[in-house]
């Protein structure tokens, strides 16, 4: 599975962005798909995940209520709608694909990673 993340950009605080994670090589409708982010000088952190079986979702506390993860089966893609963006959301955002829902918060549980898309939120 090859993953391609896109949709990042420079926005102001309070604005919205939608990130996309597109897959090629194999359908990923059965995979757990997650978004992680890494800010300069910080560790990579979990943002959100969606299951392959029933589209259950999980969010980090810092984004809960502002971000929404969803699948687009027809396009073999996963989206992250980010609303009410804050400067602390500034980071390189990665999508990842894995097989285990119970380890969805752990970056080392994921098998495939996209290259990252940069989100910059100015105050």
Overall description:
With 123 residues, the chain is mostly beta strands. It is 0% helix and 51% strand. Strands 2, 4, 5, 6, 9, 10 and 11 form a 7-stranded mixed sheet that branches.
Compact description:
This protein has 123 residues and is mainly beta.
Which strand-content bin applies to the residues? Answer: over 45%
**Mean of residue pLDDT values:** 93
Helix/strand structural class: mainly beta
The biggest sheet, with number of strands, parallel, antiparallel or mixed sense and barrel status, is:
7 strands, mixed
Question: Multimeric state of these chains?
Answer: single chain
| DSSP E strands, number | 11
Low-confidence stretches: none
Q: What's the shape?
A: globular
Question: What are the defining features of this structure?
Answer:
123 residues; globular; mainly beta; 4-stranded antiparallel beta sheet; 7-stranded mixed beta sheet
Please give the structural blueprint:
Layout lengths: L1 E5 L2 E4 L4 E8 L7 E7 L6 E6 L6 E3 L7 E6 L4 E6 L8 E8 L11 E4 L3 E6 L1
Parallel strand pairs: 2-11
Antiparallel strand pairs: 1-3, 3-8, 4-5, 4-9, 5-6, 7-8, 9-10, 9-11
């Amino acid at each position: 599975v090859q993953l391609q993340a896109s949709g990042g950009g420079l926005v102001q605080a309070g604005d919205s962005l939608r990130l996309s994670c597109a897959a090629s090589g194999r359908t990923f409708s059965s995979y757990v798909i997650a978004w992680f982010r890494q800010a300069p000088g910080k560790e990579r952190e979990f943002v959100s995940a969606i299951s392959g079986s029933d589209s259950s979702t999980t969010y980090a506390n810092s984004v809960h209520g502002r971000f929404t993860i969803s699948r687009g089966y027809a396009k073999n893609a996963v989206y992250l709608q980010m609303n009410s963006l804050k400067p602390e959301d500034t980071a390189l955002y990665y999508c990842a694909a894995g097989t285990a829902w119970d380890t969805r918060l752990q970056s080392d549980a994921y098998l495939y990673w996209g290259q990252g898309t940069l989100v910059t939120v100015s105050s």
